[in-house]
Write a structure and sequence with these properties.
Elements lengths: L6 E5 H16 L4 E5 L7 H9 L4 E4 L2 H6 L6 E4 L8 H7 L2 E4 L2 H13 L4 E8 L7 E2 L3 H8 L5 E7 L12 H18 L5 E3 L6 H5 L9 E4 L1 H5 L17 E14 L22 E7 L11 E3 L5 E5 L4 E4 L12 E6 L1 H9 L4 E5 L4
Parallel strand pairs: 1-17, 2-3, 2-10, 3-4, 4-5, 5-6, 6-7, 6-8, 8-9
Antiparallel strand pairs: 1-11, 11-12, 11-16, 12-15, 13-16, 14-15
Helix pairs in contact: 1-2, 4-5
The protein binds pyridoxal-5'-phosphate.
The site of pyridoxal-5'-phosphate has 14 residues, from strand 10 and helix 9.
Amino acid sequence: MKKNYPCVEVDLKKLTHNVKTILSMCDKKHIDIAAVTKVYCAQLPIVEAILEAGVTQVADSRILNLKKLKNLNCKKMLLRIPMISEVYDVVRYSDCSLNSEIDTIVQLAKAAKELNKIHNIILMVDLGDLREGILIDDVVFIVSKIVKLDNIKLIGLGTNVTCYGGVIPDSKNLGKLIKLKLEIEKTFNLSLPVISGGNSSSLYMVINDTMPGGVNQLRIGEAIVLGRETSFGEPVPNCYDDVFTLRGEIVEIKNKPTVPTGIIGMDAFGNIPHFEDKGIRKRAIVALGRQDIRVEGLRPMDTDISIFGASSDHLILDVTDSKRELKVGDIVDFKIDYGCLLAAMTSIYVEKYYNNKLD
Ligand SMILES: *Cc1c(COP(=O)(O)O)cnc(C)c1O
């Protein structure tokens, strides 16, 4: 098959393996997984593969992505706190949303009533990471308002850590969530079946068996796609870290000095660059740039290749030490981190290919 470059190749078999591994690991601890699809823009072939592997609930931060999945048979969760301007679509295209603002919840109730639906919400509690969520002291008051609303069902409490503040989830902060759940259930005589205990950074507690009892849902993105937990950046046991491969084509290859000639001003991004003189090196330009990727998140698979830098659409490599006799037209493969994957999957200039489809 003739391919277009740059491209991301997705190995659906490896992905499926990661999904099954993480599902079974969590299932043993009675934890459900909401598989987070945002990093790959909820691309249908990937979502279909993860459902095939046993996922029953998907989660995304954007309604546009959930809308693409409307015909798939699974529960859908909206991760980002909804905008008031999108409440109708939130009710239409998600079964559940994560919330932290009573004004928005009131609007969701109104939309749900008009659309003749019940919308489920999980109330987000800020346990110290300072991204989204209600402060602990305000939770009971907000719940007292939510329980008066029609067409809104509060199904649980959730939290998100290790996103903005880098706070690591542990039994102490997640324990507060469980305590709060019990207090609310008692005060309002209701049941909160879902305790959504975070993202891939909470997975290490499943792995080392320290997850506080009561946490029964995790929203997992990165661990599935990159095989990595995100509190300490450790590999998830028995998972692949190479589900996604970024591939680019060499458009120029020449021996050149490592220090530019002339007076150095600003580069294309307004920085004043510095250069280390390594003498004459064999430099390859790959047709790939900051419009498609995050350069800092690229790792050439050929470990003898290093990266000089990149502009919007040119990636400059040092290929001097590569054992391959590289030439114009050759393809260079990269492993990519989360930020780079996010950029590549989002870029319309990067083709996506799905390999090892399950039949
Ligand atoms: C993105 C996101 C996740 C998934 O995070 P990963 O680190 O990729 O597992 C979970 N919850 C919320 C609210 C998110 O925005």
